[in-house]
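Bench log, entry 3. Co-assembly request; chain sequences pasted below exactly as received.
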Amino acid sequence: MKRLNNYRILFLLVTFIVSSSGYTQDSIAKQPLLDVNYFSYDNNIPYVQVMARLKQGRKFEPIKGVNIKLYLDSVSSSLLITDKAVTDETGKANAGMPTSLQKEWDASPTHKFIAEASGVKEFEGERAEIEITKARLLIDTATASETRNIIATFTALENGEWIPVKDVDIKIAVKRMGGTLTIGDEATYTSDSSGTVTAEFKRDSIPGDAYGNIVLVATVEDNDKYGNLSIEKTAKWGAPFAYHSTLNERSLFASRNKTPIWLLFMAYFIIGIVWGTLIYLVFQIFKIKKLGKQAV
Amino acid sequence: MDTTITLTEEQISRDLYPQKFGKRGTIWVAILIVICLVGAYAYYRQLKEGLVVTHMRDYVSWGIYISNFVFFVAISLVGSLITAIFRLSNVRWSTPLTRIAEIIAVSAIVFAAIIIVVDMGRPERFLNLFLHGRMQSPIMWDVIVIGTYFFISLLLLYLPLMPDLRILNRDPQKNPRFLNRLYRFGGSFWKGTKEQFRVSNRAIAILCIIIIPVAFCIHTVTSWLFATTYRPGWDSTNFGAYFVSGAFLVGAGGVVVAMYVFRKSYNLEKYITDLHFEKMGRIVVLLALLYLYFNVNEYLVPAFKMKKPEEQHLTQLFAGEFAPLFWFAILVGMLIPILILVFKKGRKPLPMFIAGVMIVIGAWFKRYLIVTPTLLHPFLPMNDVPESYKHYFPSWQEWAIAMGSLAGALLIITFFARVYPIIPIQETINEQNEKAEQL
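Structure output for the full assembly:
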């Protein structure tokens, strides 16, 4: 009886744990997250990316179809960057700086981007903003004796002048298909008082294009003050990639007139032996026929 | 042949002489002809309308036709087992079975070739295989090796038949006129001289040697049609041996069925004895165990690893859409026959016949399971395709053509048995004489 009671307690405990964990999972409210990020490539016209996600526990779910209104500095129809941005299936919506706001953009070294969301229940009335200081990233190469260096310089706009900025983390890498590859031992370098980082290029045998060109890239990522900046430079530091076409070579996957010689030899050798024997055997039938006539 | 009974030459000739169809034989032939005609009509529709009358679509482009082709190629392998391997091993008891095995081989290989042409949407392009064939392609190897195997099987059927043609030519009044013409054309020159026997026996010995590697090639190459393709269920190094072992099993099963049917139909109990069933039973159980072993390798090892692309395929076979067919093929095609034949009582004619039928039916479905499920499990998901592309069940035309081809193969065997002695008369007489001399 006592054992039965123990089992009953165990059963209730398991049921409670299972049901309460399920309840806990369902009961966590979904929290809307609206993020604004600033991007500048090659010091050109920047663009802003707004990301809409729902957070539940540790899960982040990108939300498609959120309408975004984006403003520069303050919520005003005259400072509207766009009201037509809609998040895609990755929850992202991008908006470039319109030429109509050129004057406002040039007026100040720091700006605020304000995003307002609508169109999806959870995001109705949600707002997010980011403040950035205009910055510039430059990239150059220098070769001294056997050493090849990449020099990146980071400057920020202050009182109408580009001032070098110290202690900014800059990634130096070489562009490859689908991503980047570090050029040496370090992935990230920190700028000195002149806003400069110098990185030694150690990927000597890396394949480039047909002329040996590779694309070097310097990036500042998710900087609280300056946002995301990136710049590229092509250098002739790679090994020229010579494309070797096998189209006209004899191979197993080639056309019928490009069959490998060894395969042809083997196939015809076997066919010759087998069919040679069979032809010999057919002659044996004629021989039997002849013997039959002779026997008469 | 029963070792205790000594038969006279006349009695052997009389017993083994081709007989006219009885009532049951006529009905059997009529049924087969009707099935063939329905198949021919279905093929006419396919020619007229195109392959759209089948249920093969973009994904399942090899359906029941190719399964049938693999089945025919498999069953044809028995010619090399019974005729060549036994003859070279000096197994004398197999003499009454050699011609049965050879005619099964010839009829199966004929319909293997025909069914491939049926599978082609444009059969008039068949010649292009020879005019523009790529030697790198396993399909080309298959065409070459099937043609070669057919020719060898035909020679192996014809050469031992010559002495019997002399017996058939002996009394023309016994035969219809067209058969006399056929017998004269095939064997009027056979006088049974010592020199003729010497040349003939030598030619048969050469054929027996050459047919073994060609037979192994025919089924290995057929397996490579699949194994050289990187697809779940086909991407296997085990495939050649797996196919060859399966082919030996279905071929031996087919011979057992034919032995029983011919014995019953033509009252051949004195020639195809219980001893033949006993010995064939032992061979079949050994082959079934061998094939089971290769099946364990083929399915258990990938299932143990459960690589992602294989997972869906194997799950569908073990517990999904194809599970009833899969377990039917394993149970009926292997396990139950093993259980029947492993016991001495199971190696009697009737249980052997039942086991043989089970093996042949199981083997046919096994070929279907090798070909089709893999095609329904491509590496990339099936998106934006009509629902009919995602499943496959043969259309009535496909069934009719497949059944018509099976009936056609049986018809060749039936007509052959009507025209020629299904058990070699001269060889049986020779063996009988040898036995008498020994006594």
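Chain A has a mean pLDDT of 89. Chain A touches chain B through 28 residues (CB under 8 Å).
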